[in-house]
Amino acid sequence: MSARALTIRFVEAMLGLEARVRGDPAVLGRMDALVGDGIAVGLAGAAERGPTLLADESAAQSGGLSRAGATLLAREGRLPPVPAARVNGAAMHVLDYEPMWNPANHAVSTVLPALLALCETSAPGTNGAGLATAFAIGIETQARLRRASRQFEPADLVFHPPGVVGPIGAAVASAVLLRLDPETVVHAVGIAASRAGGVLANVGSMTKALHCGGAAADGLEAALLAARGFTADGDALDGPRGYLNAFFGSGADPGALTEDRPLAVMDPGPAFKFYPSQYGTHFVITAALELHAAIGSDAPIESVTITCPPMPYVDRPSPPSGLAGKFSFQYVAAAALLDGAVTLDTFTDARRFAPDMVALLPRIAIAPDPDRKGRFDEMSLDIMLRLADGAMHGAMCDGPPGIWGRPAPAAWRVMKLRDCVARAGLPEGLDAQLGAVSDHDPGSLKALIRSLGLPCADGA
């Protein structure tokens, strides 16, 4: 292997960030918020059907649940670390409630579950600052891969980003906790590169969450295999048969992998979500809630037009389920206009097929505007509705609450954590512990992670 091959230079750049992250209280504070948000949405998502089926199958393949291994969020029993990371990653993503990043990616559910599993099993001496540091480096890894892709507009995407960059992010973050040397991490990256994928056709199905859970599990396994001596190509990222060309083609920018820039967790940082749905729908929700405030709940709506960038994957006039409604501009507009709120309960099948929803959906049309950009940091849309008496009302949105550069009130995140913990049936007050993970010593961190599961029937 060439000493200066792209993959080793990338790995050295990522490992070289450890002191920079640990020494910056602002970065650790941001990581506390991200750990808390990720765990909270995972707790709330654990009871969804997809993660439940995945947990059942993982238990069956592992010979059943046990008291050893890694904790499953809001579930009884434990699993070995790799399947536990897969289940918990799916739970963290299934609600589509985790933060958005720029370039667009889901960087929390792809990394954090792997680190939680390691802190209980293969790296039990890790303290909270160590977890936060590895997590920040895993996010940075994904951000650089996304910048290298040059695929910033939704129309440019060929694969679902977290399935492509998440395994490598999880591998590097896991390697940081395992204290692997750079040459070993190169092999972990190479292994993870061959586990990447995720077709966009599955957006709106249970499988979308598996892209993220699978990334966490595959990246963790890649690091564990590399630690045992399992090898990969020494420069799997580069060259005509390498990862960058395979996923991003000739437009890829290898230089983005080693470019010295502010950490992605700080610049531009995360856009925390306050509605549990695809991020583009938050623009629709924000504008539709403004219209609801103007017309009220009982106004007879004759028609609604959403003028937005061309985004076919969220143009779903009749989503087949509440889950698919998370990826429908028409559905979230109807929900916001009818209910004046968009919550976890908005995306149940019961709400999707309620008579008022069924009646309003056919009256909502999308008008694609090719002059508008679909990347979230430059996106805007307008909603115009006509009432039965002919009155017209309009609203626009160029960014929902919490988007980059417009932080939402801290109280909003506190309320979100409390709501998610309460839905999981876990003790009141756990949300406060989730917001200060970097302060934990190894013992209290492991105890906190164990507290995220449900007690077994016998109380163990």
Helicity range: 40-55%
Largest sheet: 4 strands, mixed
Number of DSSP strand runs? 6
Name of the top-level CATH class of the largest domain: Mainly Alpha
CA(first)-CA(last) distance: 50 Å
User: Could you report the average pLDDT, rounded to the nearest whole number?
Assistant: 95
Look at the structure and name the CATH superfamily of the largest domain.
Answer: 2-methylcitrate dehydratase PrpD
Strand content: 5-15%
Radius of gyration: 22 Å
Spatial order of the strands forming the largest sheet: 4-3-5-6
Q: What is the number of independent domains?
A: 2
Note the total helix count. 18
CATH topology of the largest domain: 2-methylcitrate dehydratase PrpD
CATH architecture of the largest domain: Orthogonal Bundle
Which properties best describe this structure?
47% helix, two-stranded antiparallel sheet, 18 helices, alpha+beta, 4-stranded mixed β-sheet, globular, 460 residues, 2-methylcitrate dehydratase PrpD, 60s Ribosomal Protein L30, Chain: A
Provide an overview of this structure:
The protein has helices at residues 6-15, 18-22, 25-45, 49-61, 81-93, 112-120, 128-149, 161-178, 182-193, 206-227, 243-248, 279-295, 329-339, 349-352, 355-360, 410-423, 430-434, 442-450, and strands at 70-71, 78-79, 301-308, 364-368, 381-387, 392-397. It has a four-stranded mixed β-sheet with strand order 4-3-5-6, with helices on one face. A two-stranded antiparallel ribbon has the order 1-2. The chain has 460 residues and is an alpha+beta fold. A hairpin with a 6-residue loop joins strand 1 and strand 2. The chain has two domains: 6-274 and 435-445, 2-methylcitrate dehydratase PrpD; 279-397, 2-Layer Sandwich (60s Ribosomal Protein L30, Chain: A), CATH 3.30.1330. Helix 4 packs antiparallel against helix 5 (81-93), helix 5 (81-93) packs antiparallel against helix 10 (206-227) and helix 6 crosses helix 10.
